[in-house]
Amino acid sequence: MEFGDAGAESFSASVLSVKKASSITVRLDKVDGEIVGKAEFSADGLVTVPLTGAVGKHDVFFVFAGDFEADYWEFEDSKTSIPQGPFCKAKLGDPEAKCDLPVVGAKIEGTANFIDFENYDVGGAGKAYYDMDTKNQGGEYREDRVDIVKNGDGFAVGYTQKGEWLEYTVNVQAGGKLPFELSYASGMDNTGVQLFMDDEPITDTLALTGTGEFDTYGTFKGTTTKELTKGEHVLKVMVTSDYVNLDWIAFGESEGSAEDIRNGTTGIVPKIAAGAAGMANAFARAAGSYRVFDLMGSELGNIRLNAGATLTDLKAGLKTAGFGSGVYVVRNPAGKTLKLQVGE
Ligand SMILES: [Ca+2]
Ligand SMILES: [Ca+2]
Ligand SMILES: [Ca+2]
Predict the structure, then answer these.
(1) Cα of 146 from ligand 2 centre, angstroms
(2) Where in the chain is the domain with CATH 2.60.120.260?
(3) DSSP β-bridge partners for residue 235
(4) pTM of the complete model
(5) 8-77 has which CATH code?
């Protein structure tokens, strides 16, 4: 291996099926050669240790002790190492672009309040995220180990396994215990995540009930169990049970639901209404045909709305057209979809 003149800074290994206290010793040139680092662990996960003296060109020997399987391993050198920091989507097209940090505030008012799980921090494995396999299994959006899947015209993190985690640098503008809403989908009966701020738990394990399908998203509403403090902090989401697709989370009070605000603010929404309800209503504002689907994606029919209609008009229109009580997915003339419930 060529460690270069600057040398390798750290060694990381993803270990599975750890049955007792185990270790990986990194030695140079021969099986009993110089020790440059030793990773010790007694549980599954990513273990990272600093290296000393891993400079220049050497044969490298890993000496395993204990009982475990090594999933993958890597060396990080000081030159290519990137510090953890916020991900800025606009930079993908323009390196000079600037992004504001997502806002954790008292009120959900617009797009700034939505933390999209696929926009996890840069900095790489072990710093900004931990993913159990080396490939992006969804193949979308970012070239990393995190598994990203399509979700409508956006993205979500998929193929999540217990123990995986993701981090987000955020701007906390309101202190105290804050309500939040988290958008997820899972074909499992039950799954879960836990939230942390600067590695301190801010919620208990959130029990997320399955939504039936991995592409049917619903939201979980909760409140942090710990008081947040203002300033720049790092939010972490830890998967506590296998297979939950994670779309976004938003903190703060909302009129109605964050989901309505989200559906009203994504896409080509004109900045007409300031309030949350106004933004959700933007979904039904354009005149034209609104196509109606069931949750499995089968088209059931369509209705027409006049310009300036509201969500209430949309629901009334569905009723008038003979759609019974239930949950429908409606696609507006601009191609945006909204899941909504029609009552009795
Ligand atoms: Ca992966
Ligand atoms: Ca994964
Ligand atoms: Ca998303």
Answers:
(1) 6
(2) 8-77, 89-254
(3) 168, 197
(4) 0.66
(5) 2.60.120.260
